[in-house]
């Protein structure tokens, strides 16, 4: 068992402040008795169940080169904690939602029917889409209604995901289960000798707070008691692997929690991709940092471990305490042939053009303990009737985004575009941020400079903090291209 030597000495709480006035005081790490005493125990035993593989959805039609899928949003009950039933909001009754596998330049149509008793809106996170297909916060599907989303898939490969985005309820809808993965590939990615097929595995991680008496999934804005990790919908699972290389697609589907993923033996992981697909070059690292909504693909070579090894994937992220310090376990159970490899060069990204405009964005939320705190972009609450930024079609803009809080972390997500990180706190970004991104973390006081090209669709889109409790509290704004 790994020690807590790597946990931050005074890790910040990732819970944030909710509409109920939950405290933003920092949570101590596992060495601090205050945090250990205040944090509820995990609701499930460690490594007692096998990690599920998220089912890949089959199209109902492929006629005319268009893949058509059908999904129904409905309430189901499932056993997540041993012996208890939990009510969930799901796509097709699955938790998490089924994975869609798509190809570049092959359109996908998803027919969504809402059989829930709340409004919904389905956003394909990271995709370049016309405004009508983006799943905007106010473009909702009423209970009992249905709509059709069309995804052209004209962008390069990327591990995208889809989730609810209906304003004011997006946080609870996603927390209760309305999220799934959308894996877009192309010839460039497929030509590389990376691990494929059964050795290319989605690992979607999120946290949850259960009533351990009856299995109810408890929801409260800004809840700091979400101390049970779920991986592909199962609590603290084990995953049986062969003694060879795997491509693991880590995705943080938590509402608020920041993750710092490490192997318990401090073993190397080779990061090969981030939100927007492959990095230019692989990056060998001990830790993968993911804020809410971020993704990272890594290759782990399990051939360095003998059969019989049991290796824990840890979380040493901000706010980590004993109850959220272990995520899952890899069990090396057999040998296998392996003809995969990680090339020294993964892709080429075009040179960034000269910027046509520069902007500043400031994220801030109330953190003074008031009863009804709010969250702001440029000191404004989200107003869907207001356009906050107007952008010329074809523009390539530099945005400098600052977290003005001293306690609360944030992150930043833009609809429509993938962007490049130019600077973090005035310095060049690390190799993990060298590729295309759609979500970027901002710890208290941090500033990130990014550049994005608005050269696809015209129309109105939002940008916001992707800690969904924060966006539901008002930390969202509108940009109009054209």
Automatic annotation (TrEMBL):
<dbReference type="InterPro" id="IPR006311">
    <property type="entry name" value="TAT_signal"/>
</dbReference>
<dbReference type="Pfam" id="PF07732">
    <property type="entry name" value="Cu-oxidase_3"/>
</dbReference>
<dbReference type="InterPro" id="IPR011707">
    <property type="entry name" value="Cu-oxidase-like_N"/>
</dbReference>
<dbReference type="Pfam" id="PF07731">
    <property type="entry name" value="Cu-oxidase_2"/>
</dbReference>
<dbReference type="InterPro" id="IPR045087">
    <property type="entry name" value="Cu-oxidase_fam"/>
</dbReference>
<dbReference type="InterPro" id="IPR008972">
    <property type="entry name" value="Cupredoxin"/>
</dbReference>
<dbReference type="InterPro" id="IPR001117">
    <property type="entry name" value="Cu-oxidase_2nd"/>
</dbReference>
<feature type="domain" description="Plastocyanin-like">
    <location>
        <begin position="374"/>
        <end position="480"/>
    </location>
</feature>
<keyword id="KW-0479">Metal-binding</keyword>
<comment type="similarity">
    <text>Belongs to the multicopper oxidase family.</text>
</comment>
<feature type="domain" description="Plastocyanin-like">
    <location>
        <begin position="77"/>
        <end position="188"/>
    </location>
</feature>
<protein>
    <recommendedName>
        <fullName>Multicopper oxidase CueO</fullName>
        <ecNumber>1.16.3.4</ecNumber>
    </recommendedName>
</protein>
<dbReference type="InterPro" id="IPR011706">
    <property type="entry name" value="Cu-oxidase_C"/>
</dbReference>
<feature type="domain" description="Plastocyanin-like">
    <location>
        <begin position="234"/>
        <end position="307"/>
    </location>
</feature>
<dbReference type="GO" id="GO:0016491">
    <property type="term" value="F:oxidoreductase activity"/>
</dbReference>
<dbReference type="GO" id="GO:0005507">
    <property type="term" value="F:copper ion binding"/>
</dbReference>
<dbReference type="InterPro" id="IPR002355">
    <property type="entry name" value="Cu_oxidase_Cu_BS"/>
</dbReference>
<keyword id="KW-0560">Oxidoreductase</keyword>
<comment type="subunit">
    <text>Monomer.</text>
</comment>
<dbReference type="Pfam" id="PF00394">
    <property type="entry name" value="Cu-oxidase"/>
</dbReference>
